[in-house]
Amino acid sequence: MSTYFAKKEEQQRRWYLIDAKGKVLGKVAVAAANILRGKNKPTFTPHVDTGDFVVVVNAAEVVLTGRKETGKKYMRVTGYIGNEKIQTASEIRRGPRPGRLVEQAVRGMVPHNRLGRKILTKLKVYPGPDHPHTAQKPIPVSL
Question: Is 56 inside any structural domain?
Fold first, then answer.
C-alpha cells in the first residue's frame, strides 16, 4: 500500500468564518492557521496547499492576555536604511490596520517559505463585523 499524497487540483476549497470578538489572539491564530494549512482534513499533506479560506471578523476586538497590550513590541521595516518602526500592540490597534495583530500572529504559525506565502493569501481579516464574502457562505468556527 502506498502513501496518499494530495494534489493541488483535487482540493475542494471551503470558506470558514472566525469571530474574534472577545477571543484570545493566540487561540484565534491557531484555529486560523490550522484551517489555512488544511490540518483539519484527513487528506493533509505537508508540502501541498490543502487548506481552506478563512475570514476573521472583529479583529480589532481581539484580546491579549497579561501585559502584552503595552509590553509586546511589533517591528516593521520601511525599506529605507535605519528606518525600523517599533509599535506596541495598543498602538497597532489604534492605527489604520488593527487587523495586523491577527495577520502577524497567523504569519508566524505557517511555514516560512513559498508555500506559507501562498497560504496567507487565503486569510481575510476585517476589523469590524462586516465582510464582503457572504456569497461564499462561510461556515462559522466555534473557539
Answer: yes
Give the pLDDT band of residue 51 (cuts 50, 70, 90): very high
* Burial readout 59-96 (b: 16 or more C-beta within 10 A, e: otherwise): bbbbebeeebeeebeeeeeeeeeeeeeebebeebbeee
- What lies within 8 Å, CB to CB, of 103 at 6+ separation is 120, 123, 125
User: Domain containing 93: what range?
Assistant: 13-140
pTM for this entry: 0.93
**How many other C-beta atoms lie within 10 A of the C-beta of residue 55?**
23
| Domains: count for the chain | 1
Grid cell locating 61: 476586538
